[in-house]
Amino acid sequence: MAILRNRLRPFSAAHYVGLAGFVVLAACLGYGQTTNSCLDCHSALPDLLGVTQEKFSQDIHAQKGLTCVSCHGGDPTSDDPDKAMSRKAGWKGKIDHKQIPQLCGSCHSDPAYIRQFNPSLRTDQLGQYRTSVHGKRLAAGDTKVAVCTDCHSVHDLRAPNDPRSTVNPVNVANTCARCHADADYMKGYSISTDQFAKYSTSVHHQALVVRGDLSAPTCTTCHGNHGAAPPGVDKVENVCSNCHAFQAQMYEKSTHKKAFESASLPGCVVCHSNHGISHPTDAYLGTGPDAVCMRCHTPGDACDQARAGLLSSLSQLNESIKSADQILRVAESSGMEVGEARLGQDQARDSLTKARVTIHSFRTDLVDQDIQAGLKIAAKNLQAGKEAMVERNYRRLGLGISLIAIGMVLAGLRLYIKKIES
Amino acid sequence: MSFPRNVRGWLDERLEWDDLIAPLRKKAVPLHRLSYWYFLGGITLFLFVIQVLTGILLLLYYRAGANEAFESVQYIMIRVQFGWLIRSIHSWSANLMIFTAFAHMFSVLFLKAYRKPRELTWVSGVFLLFLVMGFGFSGYLLPWNTLAFFATKVGTEITGQVPVIGKPLMIFLRGGEEVTGATLTRFFGFHVAVLPGIATLLLLLHVLLVQRLGISIPPKLEVQWTANPSAKREMKFFPNFLLRELMAWYVALGVLGALAAVFPWNLGVKADPFVSAPAGIKPEWYFLFMFQTLKLIPSKVWFIDGEVLGVLAFGLVGLLWLLLPFFESDQPSHMKRWITGLSIFALAYTAGMSVYGYLAK
Questions:
Q1: Is A399 within 8 Å of B261 when comparing Cβ atoms?
Q2: What average pLDDT score do residues A340-368 get?
Q3: Is A410 a residue whose pLDDT tops 70?
């Protein structure tokens, strides 16, 4: 404000104040007596003070029958700005940033009140907010942290299931990034600002935003929304296991669980990272640039040998599936019916996926069970493909013989016709 | 005495066999540079017989029902000895039969063979063509695969556009509001009982009329041969023409076998009524010209719904087509030029729209 004030010369400032006053007066006089004089004037005001009827009509609160008075107080029936915005009439003015959670909570923490609009809507947001990093910092006097309106917007607040809502799952990351990706704004806080950039490259972003899979995670899925906080290092697997249940079960019983805990390493994140999780590949088990095992293990040790064995098994099954796919594709393009074997290939692929999940147990014997099951199915399908190709050749041979026989009959008929007509 | 002579003597003694085949011996086929078009009717008949025989064999294993139709055809294709061959020949033969039926119709049209006294032969032939298309439409659904399911959905929806009787007709065809297992069972009924029964009767009538009225001579030739009877050239139907027809049937059999062995008929993916229709779905090639026409008609023409207008127009054209011989003169010197023009246009339109429909996305 001080910067703004210094930039305005006295004459210009008077000019703008006069113009704004004229606009407010003209608007109030022009529209006469209405039931909501707030919008009559504020719809004509610029920027921060401006709220148009069109904008407010999009707000879920307006749609449920609430008006400006519900939050700001005052007397909307009066055309006189002094009366409408008088403290006597309960006018609160612009709500102080620090007071916003409390104001929203006055309704949203009241189950009896909320029930009349949406019985399934939770009423613990304020309580959760107070446990969040945002809430704690706000209580400590930090007014830069997010309050309700920073994430949910204000005056055009939409329900989260509205695709235009700032808190719709598809938009949540962008909303968080408004502060968390702004290095200047986050100066003074000891957290990085690359989370959004990393998340944008992740497999989760790909699933949620590109493929539109609303079950894929966004910031709030792991960090919580109203109670947003970083999951503790020792709790990471509890977060991931909400979706990746089988991997978590395997990991829970594995030797890595204890090893990571004793070294205070954050479980899943050690191999998969957090915000920038890429699609896992078998190369994780390799020794190349994407390798993850070799970041900790020593080449040649027992674990390295187990790693090499696992990688070899996965590659073997992968190759077997590809070979069967190839021959089945050729057979199918030759018109052979290989639908059953094609279906069987899905089972082989399931075994491969299962083996990749079982990797999280870090037990070669368990992984080998899945690999062997997959190899058996792939071999059967490969055999079906080979048999289909043999059958195709047999059919073509049969066709050749039949065509020769037909040709001979045609020649015989021709000769017979010649004979009877000569 | 040889065995065949013995059999013939035995038959003649009881059935007066020689009298029975006497009309065939008397029958003659006109000989001219367009005589080969006369083979088309016989080839169509041959393919119909193939359809009946392979259809009966398929019936031994096919099960009509939404839960088992696809699996039973899959079983025929994979497990039944030569099942793939029978099913592929049935499918290819169906398509070839529709093609030869169309070709036969246009040959009759261009050779002016429909004029008096052969009006009823034409009418029975056009009815047979409609029936053959009905065979194609009903048979297409029987494997219960995705393409067939949605093609039937679209096809019956078009039927529903006919004013007044459209909706009840669509419900009758579908066995309800939607295409379901009930549609499959009744299409199966139409395909193996209703249509073959009517087609057999009509076919007998058609062949009987051809036999009774003899083979038509093109008008120009008729004028020349009437003026100069010595120029008239004919071939005995039995055995000379029939032996040549037999050769044509063998060629058709070879073509069928080759198509079935090299391009076995695809089974596709089992129909799932709950998935959306595949993009760019089209009907079988013989319905493409109508489908494409309906697509090109604007949604509203004046105050009439475009699709309704299209369906009504096709109905009217079908009726006029059926009655075409009654507009024609029986005198070679008074042949209607507009009918020849219309025939050329109809052929060009049908072929052009089919190609356009095939290429269109």
A1: yes
A2: 95
A3: yes
Chain A residues lying within 8 Å of B250, measured CB to CB: 406, 409-410, 413
Q: Is the domain of A53 the same as that of A169?
A: no
Closest CA to A103 of A79, A75, A71: A71
Give how far B250 is from chain A: nearest CA, Å: 6
- Is A280 contained in some domain? no
User: Do residues A178 and A71 both lie within one domain?
Assistant: no
Per the structure, the complete domain to which residue A316 belongs is given by: 302-421
String of DSSP letters for A349-372: HHHHHHHHHHGGGT-HHHHHHHHH
Per the structure, the count of domains in chain A is 3
B131-170 pLDDT per residue, tens: 999 999 999 999 999 999 999 999 999 999 888 899 999 9
Residue B249 corresponds to which amino acid?
W
The answer to whether B254 contacts A402, with C-beta atoms less than 8 Å apart, is yes
For the domain that residue A306 is a member of, what is the CATH number?
Answer: 1.20.140
Residue A376 falls inside a structural domain: yes
Q: Is 90 exceeded by the pLDDT of residue B26?
A: no
Q: Give the pLDDT score at A184.
A: 94
Whether residue A190 has pLDDT greater than 90: no
A40 plus A154 within the same structural domain: no
**pLDDT per position as a tens digit, B221-235:** 988 998 999 989 999
Higher pLDDT, B113 or A235: B113
How many Å apart are CA B296 and CA B292, to the nearest integer? 6
- The pLDDT score that the predictor gives to residue A228 is 86
Rounded CA-CA distance B83/B76 in Å is: 5
Closest Cβ opposite residue B267 in set A337, A399, A410:
A337
Q: Which domains does chain B have, with CATH numbers?
A: 28-284 (1.20.810.10)
pLDDT at B60: 97
Helix (H) or strand (E) holding B235: strand B234-236
Backbone angles phi, psi at B193, to 5 degrees: -125, -60
Distance of alpha carbon A86 from its chain centroid, rounded?
46
Final residue before a domain boundary, out of A58, A75, A94: A94
Looking at the structure, tell me whether residues A57 and A105 fall in a common domain.
no
Q: What confidence score (pLDDT) does residue A276 get?
A: 92
Measured at the CA of B187, the angle between CA B181 and CA B193, to 5 degrees, comes to 135
Nearest-CB residue to B257 (from A399, A420, A421): A399
Residue A124 has pLDDT above 90, yes or no: yes
Phi, psi of A408 (to 5 degrees): -65, -40
Helix B83-110 vs helix B69-78: angle between axes, to the nearest 10 degrees? 100
Give Cβ neighbours of residue B22 (< 8 Å, ≥ 6 apart).
Answer: none
Q: Judge if A129 and A80 occupy the same domain.
A: no
Please state, in angstroms and rounded to a whole number, the distance separating the CA atoms of residues A40 and A77.
Answer: 11
Same domain? A117 vs A201: yes
Q: List, in order, residues 6 or more apart from A352 with CB less than 8 Å away.
A: A314, A317, A318, A321, A370, A374
> Do A335 and B257 make contact, defined as CB atoms within 8 angstroms?
no
- Nearest-5° angle of CA B350, CA B354, CA B357? 140
Q: What is the ipTM of this complex?
A: 0.85
B328: left (phi over 0), alpha (psi -120 to 50) or beta: beta
Q: In the predicted model, what is the mean pLDDT of chain A?
A: 88
Bridge partners, residue B235, by sequence = B29
What dihedral angle (degrees, nearest 10) is formed by the CA atoms of A206, A210, A214, A215? -30
SS3 B238: helix
Tell me the two tokens of residue A185: 């704004």
Q: Of A61, A62, A64, A86, give the one whose Cα is nearest residue A75.
A: A86
> Over pLDDT 90: what percentage of chain A?
64
CA separation for the pair B129, B350 (Å, rounded): 15
The closest CB to that of A410, out of B250, B262, B267, belongs to B250
Q: Which helix (H) or strand (E) holds B30?
A: strand B28-30
